[in-house]
Amino acid sequence: MRVLLDECVDRRLARDIVGHEVRTVPQMGWATIRNSELLVLAEGQFDAFVTVDRNLAFQQDLPRLSIAVIVLRARTNRLADLRPLVPQLLEAMQQAARGEVTWIEQPGR
């Protein structure tokens, strides 16, 4: 699966998403692009967009896009808090549907 990590996700998380082709928004040269345009660009090259931006799901018209959006919900955006979500993320990526949001939450939240 081709995965794009949002710029608000620690880029080091890409190393933990094994078995997938992972790029970051800055690597693509898209760091200054607004979410609506970013998702349109991403849907042409990626299968899934991973973010910690909880508002994205409510601000964008995701059903019209052909990219799955996965929102990580941890205590903070720090790598130490995001890493425990990776097993759930890898599992969710197998079932994530294009045009839909999948929420991954820290256990016990």
Shape: globular
Structural class assignment: alpha/beta
- Report the C-alpha radius of gyration, rounded: 13 Å
Question: In DSSP terms, counting alpha (H) and pi (I) runs of 4 or more, how many helices?
Answer: 4
Amino- and carboxy-terminal Cα gap: 28 Å
| Mean model confidence by pLDDT | 91
Number of strands: 5
Order of helices and strands: EEHEHEHHE
Instruction: Kindly estimate the percentage of residues that lie in beta strands according to DSSP.
Output: 15-25%
User: Which stretches are poorly predicted, pLDDT < 50 over at least 5 residues?
Assistant: none
What can be said about the biggest beta sheet?
5 strands, parallel
Strand order of the largest sheet: 2-1-3-4-5
Helix content: 10-25%
Structural commentary:
- By secondary structure, the protein is of the alpha/beta class.
- It has helices spanning 35-43, 56-59, 79-82, 86-95, and strands spanning 2-5, 21-24, 48-51, 68-73, 101-105.
- It has a five-stranded parallel β-sheet, sandwiched between helices.
- It is globular, with a radius of gyration of 13 Å.
- The termini are far apart.
- The mean pLDDT is 91.
